[in-house]
Amino acid sequence: MRSESSEQSESSEQVTTSGIPRGGPIYLPNMVGHVSTVDEFQSSFLNLLEDLDAHLSLESPSSSHQYDISIDTLKIYTEEELTDMAMKEAFQEDDFSQNELEKALDASHTEDPLAGNGGTTKRKRAVKKTVKKTVKKTEDAYIAKVEELAKLKQKQDEDKAAVRLHCFSKTCENGEDVSTSPEGLEQMQSLRSIDNYALVKPSEIQGPVDLLFPEVILCVEIYNSRKVKTQEFLVLGRQMLTELRDKIHCLTDHVMEKAGTYDPSGYFLIEDVFHNDLRNSSATDYSKPILEWLWNSNDEALKKWECILTGDSLQKQKAVLGEAKPKDLPRFVSADMHSTRFCDLRFRLGASYLYCHQGACKHMIVIRDMRLTHPEDLQNRAAYPRVVYQSKPRVQKCCVCKIYRATKFALDDKWAKENYSYFCATCFALLHYEGGSLSCDFPVYDYVYE
């Protein structure tokens, strides 16, 4: 059955630190989207792009120049840049004044030389007046530029002091510390996986196949029974569910395979549909007895369904208000996993669904994100489902040498200090083999890394 959204998993080490493009909604705990499909998302997104393109194309190129906005006034200049700007403008005006002075001197020299001494005196006086006016005009220009520079610098300092990047501050507008509040801490933990994102190196794949455009990529998370995230995949919308199942890593599969009791059966329960993996002829339809029980014991199934949804609150409601209106039991159906693509599913982003295999080994799967492909995405279809997160396995060392990894697990071993003892192959052979034969009267198992 469907359960509540998965909790934020504890962080584990990743293999590499190369990033990948991100998109879609920001995943937060207990936030579940509405029921949708890959095709609905793709069509709505492409329609938005077409509307945006049509809106931008309404403005002709000639009219678009009328609305050009300069952002030079928004730039923050340094003191050196402001000084250089003022000096350049001042030197330009100084050159203009120098040209006026040269023109006045040339005009005085081109006067009629027969005018006599009186004319010479008048010319000298005119030149002196011109020089004084030019010098005064230049000094006024310098003073004006210096004052303008000082005002611009003062305004820039005031703007810097007025700006407060409160969105990056730990303190809210009401004065509370975000880091100390549970809501702020929970939100920061949920966003941590988005900022610190690493990509596992893919294995070498032969025969690259280009992606079809537009293609939708889904981000699928896998959780173990303790609600700890163990894997994360990027899956294409046109891929089969069986392709994802073959990539899911679980120790139970290895244990059952070593014991010779491996069961290829399994199913995904996504929005009231059991997707059974029946590719192997020996596989069992896990959903068949469940559907038969739902059909034959409808009343009992309805009571269990109400308890799953409401728990103790329903019993309290019945005690106070009497019998409440029963909730409808979902209409569960079955489908083949090997013939179902992700684009055929109806799901909710952020909701947790069930993956069951090996009889009773259960995992939660969460479709956290959905977006279109990006040029920085790996353009090889054969590389998907792509593992982008893999939890680091916890390995027990030998309890004797404390150096090598354990390969054997023993119970009630008289040679060990503690029960649940772990041994490497060398230490186990030295302690428990006599004359080439194993001599122990307690259970011994092969140790599989957790």
Q: How many β-strands, per DSSP?
A: 15
Q: How many DSSP helices?
A: 11
Which percent range describes the beta-strand content?
15-25%
Largest sheet: 8 strands, mixed
Order of helices and strands: EHHHHHEEHHEEHHHEEEEEEEHEEE
How far apart lie the N and C ends?
Answer: 26 Å
Spatial strand sequence of the major β-sheet: 6-5-4-8-9-2-3-10
What overall geometry do the principal axes of the alpha carbons give?
elongated
Count structural domains: 3
**Would you identify the regions where 5 or more consecutive residues have pLDDT less than 50?**
1-19, 165-173, 190-198, 202-206
GO cellular component, one term: nucleus
Pfam family, one: SNAPC3
Protein name: snRNA-activating protein complex subunit
GO molecular function, one term: core promoter sequence-specific DNA binding
